[in-house]
Amino acid sequence: MATLPPQLGPLPPSVVSEPDDFDRFWARTLDEARSFDPEARTTERVAVEQPLSELRYWDISFRGFGGQRVKAWLSRPARCDDEPLPCVVQIPGYGRGRGLPGENPHVAAAGMAHLLLDVRGQGCGYGSGGDTPDLHDGAPEAPGVVTRGISAPETYYYRRLIVDAVRAVDAVRKLPDVDAERVIVMGNSQGGGVALAVAGLVSDLRGVTVSVPFLCDIPAVYQSAQGEPYAELVRYLSVRRAEREVVFRTLAYVDGVNHARRAQAPSLWGLGLRDTCCPPLGGQQALAAYAGPTEVEIYSDNGHEGGEFYYLRRQLTWIRELCAA
């Protein structure tokens, strides 16, 4: 377990439960997902035009949950030709899809390969859209996935998204211009919670970096979170009054605290201590539970925006140093 900085203070015990079959559930889930494409060799890749002359972009698709095709953008510096580069796999926040090529250039501009995952069934909350439906369910939709399939862990939405993110790591490791031993997972908010799950499920990542993570110590932060997306859970339980125990059992399988206990890769965290969307207690509990090395940047006067570009600069420097070691 990580030692917290003094300014975070002592924490109460985490209230999230850990299902007895947690490891078996995820091992079975990933075995099933990988059975559709055992070697992750059927990744499709098409070069695309975009306005940034110093970067190259490709439209990528690979097999995610259930063998479904999941979209992503792959980018890298144009000057690096085809040499294998470290790769950052980034998971977007809630409501955002992969957007447009060129929209998120910072990682590739810093000299690394960058895979920006599309988020199934999302993309119409903000940003510039997404292209991956959830379970062939029609076009991606506005935010509203927190309770989708929540009556059982097998049908829960975030089981599918976490699998997509793990399979994105599998896919980039098979690309000839990616260094398979230097893959880092990155995410903010929703992406941070999913990145922690990937870190717990993939044992040999080079690193993981998160900010203001969602889906951490969910039973505790649910009590004080304001607005979306936790409000979706409130509305659901206000109607389905008898399902509280079932709902929180499902959520335990995706909770970042449980996944952090299994994660070994070096990690960098950013926390906004005035965050009311994803209250910082959740991120602090996941940080405290994290089994590998940790570093943390604390933004005492910021909310869910966290450190914004202050933190992104720190992340890029940290990633480059980690990959050079």
TrEMBL record:
The UniProt record lists the keyword Cell membrane: no
Location of the active site: S189, D275, H304
Residue ranges occupied by any Acetyl xylan esterase domain in the UniProt entry: 17-321
Name under which the protein is recorded: Alpha/beta hydrolase fold
PANTHER family named among the record's database cross-references: CEPHALOSPORIN-C DEACETYLASE (PTHR40111:SF1)
Naturally occurring in which organism (per UniProt): Actinomyces glycerinitolerans
MF terms in GO: carboxylic ester hydrolase activity
Record's keyword terms, sorted: Hydrolase
A GO BP annotation: polysaccharide metabolic process
Entry annotated with the keyword Metal-binding: no
Pfam families recorded: AXE1
Superkingdom, taxonomy of origin: Bacteria
Positions that bind substrate: Y94
